[in-house]
């Protein structure tokens, strides 16, 4: 026997839960299906267990997509202020860490509890440990066959996420479903992910593992200022995770394989600072001077490989300018990324050309919706991807 609902939501992550509770609040009979043993797994692990649940500065400029305008409508109609109001209504204490990033004071479990309580109040039915066998579409809507039985509804919302962190159950199911119903899926790759080094680049830097350096990372026209962290296999840290979404491996001369450049003295005029150091400390060696501005081990490595080390007085103006140029534009030759295993998000996904920007509904199949990470909309690090989940989930929940 097939159980009938008004809306079936596939995926119990941030977007799916938001969509389910929003549709339920409209009086819709909602069924949420989650293949894992519990909902909200990525919410629980995010932000070191404290969930960076939104960013007060979220705007369309903070998202990557083949169509940069697509996210505007949903983000405008469900803003960070809307989600903050929900958090405050549930009495969840939070704080701003940096750059508009909001975190729970206590635990990300409180965000999942809040969403589940909202779903319960809206009489949303949630089935966990429910793997999907097939999805069919006919005159009466959608029929979903699962390990827990068959279900039918005129509206089907796909909130199954991307490929990042497969250890938490991530699969390409949503992309397969999109193709089944005639949607284009843009190439996917890991985003917000550590970069790997190889060969001599790795050899020169791998023993610096654990050293953090404030940098401004540049790739093409994009730049981010924050910390870089050396790892055994390459580099990580907020600045690297951010720029990784804009970088692709390949020939540096091609459009895809853009060279990464790091400003190692962000916010400073390296040339003016070096001249000042030369005047004040003429007998000090460059590696000693740099150790005041950079971690000592990294400063020494720079002077072993990239910069000539000598007392400051021995540099003439062209030589000092060359040092300043290297410090402000240090090339980082990455060979690849750590991949989906550690990536926070998946770039690419369901092509937005086939979706309504106001409702997230398919332009090919009435009643079919795609929301959250499965769609070709990817946010920066710092709460932006959760805000897209809330906004896209709310948009579909208001329409489905």
From TrEMBL:
One Pfam family here: HI0933_like
Chain ranges of the RsdA/BaiN/AoA(So)-like Rossmann fold-like domain: 5-398
Domain RsdA/BaiN/AoA(So)-like insert: 189-345
Superkingdom: Bacteria
Gene3D superfamilies in the cross-refs: FAD/NAD(P)-binding domain, HI0933 insert domain-like, Translation factors
Keywords from the UniProt entry: FAD, Flavoprotein
Cofactor(s) required for function per UniProt: FAD
NCBIfam families membership: aminoacetone oxidase family FAD-binding enzyme
Name of the protein this chain belongs to: Flavoprotein, HI0933 family
Species of the source: Pseudoxanthomonas wuyuanensis
